[in-house]
Design brief:
Rossmann fold; 6-stranded parallel β-sheet; 7-stranded mixed β-sheet; alpha/beta; pyruvate-formate lyase- activating enzyme; globular
Length: about 475
Amino acid sequence: MKILLTHSNILENDPKQKQKMQPYPPLATIQAGAILREAGFDVLFFDPTFHKNLKDFDRILRSFRPDVLLIFEDYFNFITKMCLRHMRETAQLMCKAASDSGAVTIVASPDTSDHPEEFLKEGIDYVLIGEADETVKELCLALASGSDPSQNDIAGVAYRLPNGNIRKTAPRPLLCDLDVLPMPAWDLVEVESYRNAWNKHHGYSSLNLVASRGCPFSCNWCAKPIWGRHYVQRSVKQVVEELKWISQNIGPDHIWFADDIFGLSESWLIDFESALSAENTRVGFTIQSRADLLTPKAISALKNSGCAEIWLGAESGSQKILDAMNKGIKVEDLRNAVNDLKKTGIKTGLFFQFGYPGETLEDIIASADLIRETLPEKIGVSVTYPLPGTPLYESVKMHMLEKTNWEDSNDLAMLFQGAYATQFYRMLHQVLHDELDLRHQISAEGNIRGSDIQLLWKKVMEGWMTLGMMEKTHHRSDF
């Protein structure tokens, strides 16, 4: 049985990501490819990342004539987790073309886990719910044998019955041992396309890797349609072996560990440092972590392992908002973590979200003050995005607006009626970035003229004044 494997994350459809030009191969997708090849299937991978449209997909569909089209989204990519409209529509278009050619269509993603009906109503044969690595193998084996998958009762699948109703099978048990999975099929990817994009725009190349799945914390805005609060780490030995293989065979300058939480335990990080040293393997890398996990020993192990940058989910500089989010950290934890990382030379990035229910202008200013005080190298600014299955969604669903998904990752649209309109938060996003950039330029001695500083300060202050006027005209005290 021939399987055409693909995903729907096209840079051309996301202006922000196209401008950033920091593309990564779809890790979960090529791992699914490795699983299917291990099961004996003929797999052809079409990577639409750098394509402007689906013309090449249509051409491959005609020439390869697959029995199955499998769209397996990279659930390690934060873009995929946002369930963007352009990705859903691209997946639906691909499935329509494949179905017209006689192929069975299968889609697996966080979006299918949240909204299987949105895909099934478009005529897609099977949508997978939850962790799909084993599901897709079982489903494809059933199809290859000629049996009716609906009679096999494969866990983690949704499909339409002859009467038009949707049937969802039992949930798929989550993997507890990630070491049983094969290494992603890197040979399916045109790695040079990614290397060239990075080198052209940034002067170095970066590839992605994961050392764990899931997150055990309970922030009430965080959607977890794949793993819930389940967290499982790969063995240090296997992660180091994969990192060594990638270093020797592909040779990126940098690694992005796409884990939600990298190195949950201090002991794992210490073992990771020791194993890298024993293998004489060292590649600079970036991770995501939490402020309360960065103990002195953890930071030391990360530094010695080659960690160059850590992103933390700050979310807010207001303790009131952090508590409302059930974030489980203190503002002081954030200050201390950034200061401790700076002392070791590890760069920091802070994620902030605005528009959370109950947030006031005072809370917004507290976040701005935290940025000014800690001066992280980078910030990420977004607005609260309610997704099904979260306590946040349940609390605001009566106030949801007509739009339910962002078009692309730069949308920043408020999806529920909050304290301010979308335009306010888009302006806040710009002002916060402008001010941080200016403060960094001022701290870089001799790199900016006094007259330039005055012009930039004027731009920043005008931005804050505009926000002040918008706050007076758009504020809704009932939110």
